[in-house]
Design a protein that fits this description.
Residues 5-270 form the HpaB/PvcC/4-BUDH N-terminal domain. It holds the Pfam family HpaB. One of its GO terms (molecular function) is monooxygenase activity. The protein has 490 residues and is of the alpha+beta class. The chain folds into two domains: 6-282, Butyryl-CoA Dehydrogenase, subunit A, domain 2 (Beta Barrel), CATH 2.40.110.10; 285-465, Butyryl-CoA Dehydrogenase, subunit A, domain 3 (Up-down Bundle), CATH 1.20.140. Helices cover 48% and strands 14% of the residues. The chain is built from 18 helices and 14 strands. The chain has a six-stranded mixed sheet with strand order 2-1-10-11-7-6, with no helix packed on it. Strands 5-8-9-12 form a four-stranded mixed sheet. A two-stranded antiparallel ribbon has the order 3-4. A hairpin with a 6-residue loop joins strand 3 and strand 4 (66-68). Helix 4 (77-92) packs across helix 10. The radius of gyration is 25 Å and the shape is globular. The N and C termini lie far apart (90 Å). The relative contact order is 0.11. The structure holds flavin-adenine dinucleotide (FAD). The site of flavin-adenine dinucleotide (FAD) has 22 residues, from strand 7, helix 16 and helix 17.
């Protein structure tokens, strides 16, 4: 089947999935006020594939149909560039706010399917074949996936088996001839209400004795026994004038609960092998691919933040001051360093040994950026606050704009270079970026969506090639120090 349109995407969401919000089961996410805005935004991403087919679509290697470019298993730097452009075009539709747009898992599964040799280790040939077939399936059907790779927070200092008597973390509870049966929960599944399928794969390490937790699989969202409990909606269900971002880009985060869910064996990628569970993420180079996707989106978000800062400073005239210029220059520097790291990751891409010409971006600039980005995102928000000052509170609502105070608003909310309405829309947009419920959630997202940045930064130290620094230090330490060279005491 060729790439889907937005209408096809929306139609397939009406599948009886179990989504819970505020104590109620949501019957139809495309109609529910908490979800319909984001459902429409995602539908627009699917439609965009046909508006920009040269960027977004490619010929399927199996069927010849036009399918999404982000499913491509890269075989050259040019392929990486194609993938980059498709990710970027989608990211620009939300200013980088949709962290889990479908390309996130398209890129993930293209990476996984490129390494059946890794998945197939220790006799898991069937799991490896399943993941190769599954990647083709989601590419041909143009499916949207959510994923949940982390077990719930009960006691982070204890292993999975010790959390809530071993019953909380997702685990295997049985097996039939054709399926395995799983129970437990995973936090969090962003985009769950809007996804067609949920994927489970390793997100942390397991002890050898915890094999029942060593699972990787993917199933449809409407699989019996699968339930999702959402956090509060931040969409506000208000006019886009009031919340231009929350009303459209609340991608929602939900806890996934598996109550004796049957996973068909042709959808199981790993079952019980703790060694593979601890190896596949590293050995498939997933980190390189996913950070390449994530930093392309982050670049867009920083560009958006810079655009907001510039527009605000220009609107109120504060960009005449050098310390405001310095703050905006700081955001611009983040943009440029992010862009440069992506260029560097592409330039340093290499053919992965032992594969049929699969290309992998250079991990070093990407993981360096990954460690830094959560700090930059938080800093960009702080800088925007300092540039905009109390202007974020000069933000009457759509209802105010329609009401009897409008003539006062037009007079007292004007700005240096624009009228009241445009100024208010700009500041409301920026506030939705940095100060609304969604703004707060997005700050948390940037800090934790790929594990926490503290441990990622520590990991960079452990992974770092220390030889060059060590060599420079050793040159001095190897120098003989003679007693004569010391100054005599006089
Ligand atoms: C908005 C949002 C959306 C997300 N979406 C998804 C999703 O769709 N799919 C998905 O799989 N994941 C998702 N995640 C990521 C995931 O759910 C976790 O947030 C992430 O793995 C970090 O774990 P945690 O939140 O339990 O934090 P914790 O691991 O509990 O960390 C809390 C603090 O304790 C410290 N800490 C914890 N353990 C250790 C340790 N062993 N050593 C040292 N310090 C430690 C951390 O550094 C941190 O400061 C999302 C996260 C957020 C915030």
């Amino acid at each position: 089947m060729p790439a889907r349109t937005g209408a096809q995407f929306l139609e397939q969401l009406k599948d009886g999935r179990e989504i819970w919000l505020n104590g109620e089961r949501v019957e139809d996410v495309t109609k529910h006020p908490a979800f319909s805005g984001t459902a429409q935004s995602l539908a627009q991403l699917y439609d965009l594939q046909y508006e920009f087919p040269d960027v977004m679509l490619m010929e399927s290697p199996d069927t010849g149909d036009l399918v999404g470019v982000t499913h491509l298993i890269p075989k050259s730097r040019e392929d990486l560039d194609r993938i980059y452009r498709a990710i970027k075009l989608w990211a620009e539709q939300s200013g980088g706010l949709l962290g889990r747009s479908p390309d996130y898992l398209n890129v993930t599964f293209a990476c996984f399917a490129s390494r059946p040799d890794v998945w197939g280790r220790r006799g898991n040939e069937r799991g490896a074949e399943n993941i190769v077939q599954y990647q083709k399936f989601i590419r041909e059907e143009d499916l949207c996936l959510t994923h949940c790779i982390i077990n719930p927070q009960v006691d982070r200092s204890a292993p999975e088996a010790a959390q809530g008597a071993g019953e909380v973390s997702l685990h295997k509870v049985g097996e039939t001839q054709d399926s395995i049966i799983v129970s437990g929960a995973r936090m969090l599944a962003t985009l769950a209400p809007f996804a067609d399928e949920v994927a489970v794969y390793p997100g942390s390490s397991l002890r050898p004795e915890d094999s029942r937790y060593a699972l990787a699989f993917a199933i449809p969202m409407n699989t019996p026994g699968l339930k999702f409990i959402c956090r509060d909606s931040f969409s506000k269900a208000r006019n886009v004038f009031d919340y231009p971002l929350s009303s459209r880009f609340d991608e929602m985060d939900a806890v996934a609960i598996f109550d004796r869910v049957e996973i068909p064996k042709d959808r199981v990628f790993l079952d019980g092998d703790t060694v593979s569970y601890n190896e596949v993420i590293t050995d498939t180079n997933w980190r390189s691919y996913i950070v390449f996707q994530a930093m392309t989106r982050a670049l867009t978000k920083l560009e958006f933040a810079f655009g907001l800062g510039h527009a605000i400073a220009d609107t109120t005239g504060v960009n005449a001051y050098d310390h405001v210029q310095e703050k905006l220059g700081e955001i611009w520097s983040m943009v440029e360093l992010t862009r440069s790291a992506l260029v560097s990751a592409k330039a340093g891409a290499f053919e992965v040994p032992g594969t049929q010409g699969v290309y992998c971006p250079d991990e070093r600039p990407l993981v360096a950026l990954r460690a830094t980005m959560p700090k930059w995102m938080g800093r960009a928000v702080e800088l925007l606050k300092l540039v905009g000052g109390g202007g974020y509170m000069l933000t009457p609502s759509y209802q105010d704009m329609q009401g009897p105070m409008r003539s006062y608003i037009d007079r007292f909310y004007q700005a240096k270079n624009t009228g009241a309405e445009r100024r208010i829309r700009l500041f409301r947009l920026a506030w939705d970026f940095l100060g609304s419920d969604l703004g707060g959630r997005n700050d948390l997202y940037e800090k934790f969506y790929l594990s926490d940045s503290f441990r990622m930064t520590a990991l960079n130290y452990l992974l770092a090639d220390k030889s060059q620094g060590q060599r420079l230090v050793d040159r001095f330490l190897a120098e003989p120090v003679s007693v004569e060279s010391l100054e005599p005491i006089s």
